[in-house]
Amino acid sequence: MPELPEVETIISSLRPALIGKTILSVDLRWNRTLVNPSPKKFQKVILGQQIQDIFRRAKFLQIKLSGSYLIIHLRMSGDLLVVLGGYQPAKHDRLILKMTDDMSLVFSDPRKFGRVWLLDDPSVVFQNLGPEPLSDEFTPSWLYAALHSRHRQLKALLLDQSFLAGLGNIYTDEALHLARLHPLTPSDTVTVEQAEILWISVRQVLQEGIQRNGASIDWVYRGGDFQNHFRVYGRQGKACPVCGTKIERIVVGQRGTHFCPTCQALIKTGNG
Known about the structure:
Helicase, Ruva Protein, domain 3, 272 residues, single chain, 4-stranded antiparallel beta sheet, 5-stranded mixed beta sheet
């Protein structure tokens, strides 16, 4: 699943190609891709609308149209392609929007987990999301207070989109290693100093991921090279870049989790 940097990378490639284009026809090839509205209403409402901007909220893409918002969540295997000229639908295409200047926006999704909304108010989808980790709202003091308002394992909490929006498995593992915090650390035992270091680490790994166009780790997400700079993610049995200890893998919240047992030693506390 693409995380914040991968979604930012996709948007950066889409924005110059699509802004100003008008939607001329719709080919909805799998109805369950669409959450809202009905397929009939979707095709009626979206036709003739112009793309005005494209931006991100958490792991969602928002396409601002002249009369509504097209929201897309790529989930596990979704991808968006801009195609020029005549286009013949492929096996995994779920939605094709044909536009002016002989251009098509194609939503391809082999696993069929991706979802699309067409809404007047996107807050309906985003109402339960936490703050953006690169926003002014996300501060060290907010993070410390939020961590102490819960008693959860640190890795699982950071993955919770209602707590903090946009982090996924890769960047959480990377941030925790940079902050030297064990993924099983109880959130309400993190000190003020550790919270500030974690705040810096989260922003640092996300910004580096964006600079490197995200991570290309499967057949869908292309062009990024952050995978060549991972500290711990996917490096089980390899040497920690800081101390040389072998990276270990455990499961936290049903997610494979990578960490260095030396740099990220789990400190037992009375609250644990």
